[in-house]
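Bench notes, afternoon.
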Amino acid sequence: MPDQDNLDSAVAELGWQAQKSAATRNAILDSAISCIVEYGYRGTTTTAIAQKAGLSRGAMLHHFPSKLDIVRGAVEHLHKKRLKAFRKAMTRSSEGGQDRVLLGVDAFFDHVRHPLFVAFLELSVAARTDPELAGILKPTAEAFEREWYQTAKEVFPEWQGRDEQFDIALDLSRYVMEGLAISSLTHRGGDRDRRVLRYLADKLHELRDA
């Protein structure tokens, strides 16, 4: 019979190794996303990712054998982080008893200006002419869309029973926000952006109160 103390020690060691491995994988995926934002998809190499993660290229390839494997993991990691950030922003907009529509608009706008959204835009553009990347991005993006929609319904229960108005409000918000986010890559919006956001909030109020 194995000694119980030795058995407990072995189990603890395995648990620590699993945690260390998971932390290393997350560091690699975070570094991959940072590289995509900083260098673009084409400029993101396994060497650049390893350097940003503080690992040797060989150590990184032990966890992800190829760039495509890293990208596949990074896309899933990115969507999880985006969904978490979106839920946090929308939940925060539900607090304080203030104008929830206006707070929701501001929270959504902060979300699309975050580097995580920039990474998603970069991958989306690159996937247009890269079938392998498109094959990775498409199913994960569709899963994100479903969870994003459900999250929005959960944090804005006052729209319950008005599904058509809610769908229009959500689509209108998304298209306006994403358009502003793309535009912000080439110009400073300032007052122009704020004017559009306030107009959007007015339209959302009309939909909600119709």
